TrEMBL record:
Full protein name: tRNA modification GTPase MnmE
EC numbers on record: 3.6.-.-
Domain TrmE-type G: 217-372
CDD domains documented for this protein: trmE (cd04164), TrmE_N (cd14858)
Organism name: Montanilutibacter psychrotolerans
Job description of the protein: Exhibits a very high intrinsic GTPase hydrolysis rate. Involved in the addition of a carboxymethylaminomethyl (cmnm) group at the wobble position (U34) of certain tRNAs, forming tRNA-cmnm(5)s(2)U34.
Molecular function GO labels: GTP binding; GTPase activity; metal ion binding
């Protein structure tokens, strides 16, 4: 299938609003001709030209710098021109319209990056990293997106995909030469290679999960029995009266989400209905929502009354069972006469008072650390990843497990198929395998001009 010839697209590449400099970007076969007309002279590739941009009647719209990147050595792989003018929205609009008069079409969101992908300048995970870099909430997330853009994530995916392919080849060969024992065809080490591959995939999955958290921020869900002070704690952390606080058990019913920043690190907090037996229909629905929210939590913040931690622990233990990490807050420490001696096992405990603010500094430090992936291996070299990538890796892992079982039972054709499916999942991460609606879905979430 041949791709249809692409037209020339144009967009304002700088952020909306006034600024010192604004950039209009063109990409496509007509880019340099349009720029020549606008600037009144031909542009040499990779040269900064000081030019006057003129309208159809020859009147000067603005003066500025024009840069021409001849394809394929450009961001999109096509001919690209960047027109730098004064950063006035009015001037930039006029320049944009003039480019359209001269044959360009306004770009869709993400269309420049989509072209870079289609021209092979970036793989799909790298193109996604471009959007993640632009949207990064803090310096750490930006650095991690930069590493993904440099291909650190893609290289690890490719390495696993290559090894998977090599194993596939052995299995396929064994199907074709059914008389030979699998060992001689695949080499005696096939089982070992399988194990090594599974380990590498598990490590990559952990790194991608960390990368997803770097991109999306930590998702923390506050749970506990009624009246433990969950909403009070949300308010204390958010620094506002976001949630209703009363001394009536069962005050909170709906989920209440708030994004907070601690020293520039972003995390999401969700306040939930108190967990207890009984309650009216509304409260029970609230508890159902609380449990559902916990299933997508990176962290459960279990808030219990410091005066009766055993009861609090019992009220939430089953709800938090599946959550990766749990932070216990013994709240209302101001009401406590002497230090408590309750130990919930391996989880951490902090003593706080949402009312007096005691212990909140330590809580801030701990939350910042958790949001930054503190205490996890390989904090350095971390790259951003997306839920899409994590899901694909999980599916690849499941196919690998299937394949291993099928191989052990010498059901080679099924094993070959499972390996193929696993390989396709990895290919979908970098875009070598492309489900139909994937590209539109990914690039439509970009900003215009990128
Ligand atoms: N003394 C003291 N009282 C607190 C503290 N935190 C919360 N309270 C009080 O405890 C009561 C319940 O607080 P909420 O924040 O509504 O508790 P909740 O866990 O959200 O309750 P539900 O939404 O009903 O599940 C209110 O009267 C708060 O003022 C604290 O640290 N010390
Ligand atoms: K309450
Ligand atoms: Mg509440």
């Amino acid at each position: 299938m041949t791709e249809p010839a692409r037209d020339t697209i144009v967009a304002v590449a700088t952020a909306p609003g006034a600024g010192g400099v604004g950039i209009v970007r063109l990409s496509g076969a007509g880019a340099s001709a349009i720029a020549r007309t606008l600037a009144g002279r031909a542009l040499r590739p990779r040269h900064a030209h000081h030019v006057r941009f003129r309208d159809a009647r020859g009147e000067v719209l603005d003066d500025g710098i024009a840069l021409y990147f001849q394809g394929p050595a450009s961001y999109t792989g096509e001919d690209v021109v960047e027109l730098q003018a004064h950063g006035s929205p009015a001037v930039l609009q006029e320049l944009l319209l003039r480019c359209c008069e001269l044959g360009a079409r306004r770009a869709r969101p993400g269309e420049f990056s989509e072209r870079a992908f289609l021209e092979g300048r970036l793989d799909l995970a790298q193109a996604e990293a471009v959007a993640d870099l632009i949207a990064a909430a803090d310096a750490r997330a930006a650095r991690a997106a930069r590493r993904a853009l440099d291909g650190e994530f893609s290289r690890r995916v490719d390495a696993i995909a290559d090894e998977l392919l090599a194993i596939r080849v052995h299995v396929e060969a064994a199907i074709d030469f059914a008389d030979e024992p699998l060992d001689t065809l695949g080499g005696a080490g096939l089982g070992k290679r399988f194990d090594a591959l599974a380990l590498a995939l598990a490590a990559l999955l952990r790194a991608a999960e960390r990368g997803r958290r770097l991109r999306d921020g930590l998702h923390a869900v506050i749970v506990g029995p009624p009246n433990a002070g969950k909403s009070s704690l949300l308010n204390a952390l958010a620094g506002s009266d976001r949630a209703i606080v009363t001394d009536i058990a069962g005050t909170t019913r709906d989920l209440l989400q708030e994004t907070i920043r601690i020293d520039g690190v972003e995390l999401t907090l969700v306040d939930t209905a108190g967990l207890r037996d009984g309650g009216d229909a509304i409260e029970r629905e609230g508890m159902r929502r609380a449990r559902a929210e916990l299933s997508r939590a990176d962290l459960a913040i279990a808030v219990i009354d410091a005066r009766d931690p055993e009861a609090g622990h019992a009220a939430v233990a089953d709800a938090i069972a599946g959550v990766a990490s749990v932070l216990w807050l013994h709240n209302k420490s101001d009401l406590l006469a002497s230090g408590p001696a309750f130990d919930p096992g391996t989880d951490e405990v902090l003593h706080v008072s949402a009312r007096t603010g005691a212990g909140l500094d330590a809580l801030h430090r701990r939350l910042r650390g958790l949001a930054q992936g503190e205490g996890e291996d390989a904090g350095e070299g971390a790259f951003t990843a997306r839920a899409r990538h994590v899901d694909a890796l999980l599916r690849a892992q499941a196919h690998l497990v299937e394949a291993r079982g099928q191989l052990d039972h010498e059901i080679l054709d099924l094993a070959a198929e499972s390996l193929r499916l696993g390989h396709d999942e990895l290919g979908a991460i970098t875009g070598r395998v492309r489900p139909d609606d994937l590209l539109g879905h990914i690039f439509s979430s970009f900003c215009i001009g990128k």
